[in-house]
Amino acid sequence: MRSSQVYERGLASLIVALGIGFAAVPTAFAEPDDGAAAPGPAAGPMPVPVATTDDHGVPAVTACSTFANALDSASTFYGDFADSIEGVDRPDYGDPAISTTNTSGRTALRDAAASAMNAAGIPGLSPDIANPIRSWSFGATKLLLKMGLHRGGQSLNDTATQLNNDATNAQMACAAAGTHA
């Protein structure tokens, strides 16, 4: 299948999914239908206590620990998938073993990418740590999309190599901050 056909099918699927999503959105009316007076202004948002600390290492420790857990999970499940397609340029995604490890690998990557992105957004975290973690999260998302589109071995290898480089950069940033990932 040519890549343009894959993109066309993906775009068509996206349009259908958005159409279904928008069809389920409830409608809103500008005027109340019962003739009642409009209610007064709503109460403002409740203040939320913000945890503060004088130790700038706390966000780094939290983010790096969260990233380390995400990295462990993703590497385990993606590793199972990589083992199942090792040495094959065009994996047979119809094979039950490959299909199962593909699904579990994508799920782990999706969860890890979300966890890493949350870690990168921790308030007070240095951009020196947040940026490589965020880059890893984007790379993990790219890899899981390629797995979902049943891409070939070299495409997956190239993306996994970049993901490993991003992980190393994040780990080095965590180490420079005095913690580990």
From TrEMBL:
Protein name per the record: Uncharacterized protein
